Amino acid sequence: ASSVVIPATSLNLVIDSYSLLNKEINEVGLFMRNPRGNPQTNPMLVAYRPFTSLTKTSTFTLILKWTISF
Asked: Taking every pair of C-alpha atoms in the chain, what is the biggest distance, in angstroms?
């Protein structure tokens, strides 16, 4: 019997304590530059997540973790 391995990539987006100060954040998206390998660059939204709004302050760092499987 053969097994199938699905490759995955993990990414962390770090919004440090001094970034986006006093901005309301309620969604995040991840774009790939040219996932289909087109002759011209063709960015594509490959992941999206809405969430309950929060106001970013200097009292915390926000870390968003993504795992993308192909």
From this structure: 55
What is the tens place of the pLDDT at every residue in 7-64?
888 989 999 999 999 999 999 998 988 888 888 888 999 889 999 999 999 999 999 9
For the chain, the straight-line distance linking the first and the last C-alpha, in angstroms and rounded, comes to 22
Query: Which CA distances in Å does 43 have to 4, 33, 50?
Result: 28, 4, 20
Specify whether the CB–CB gap between 45 and 31 falls below 8 A. Answer: yes
**Gap between the Cα atoms of 58 and 32, Å rounded:** 29
| pTM, two decimal places | 0.69
| Interatomic CA distance for residues 15 and 35, integer angstroms | 25
- CB 64 within 8 Å of CB 48: no
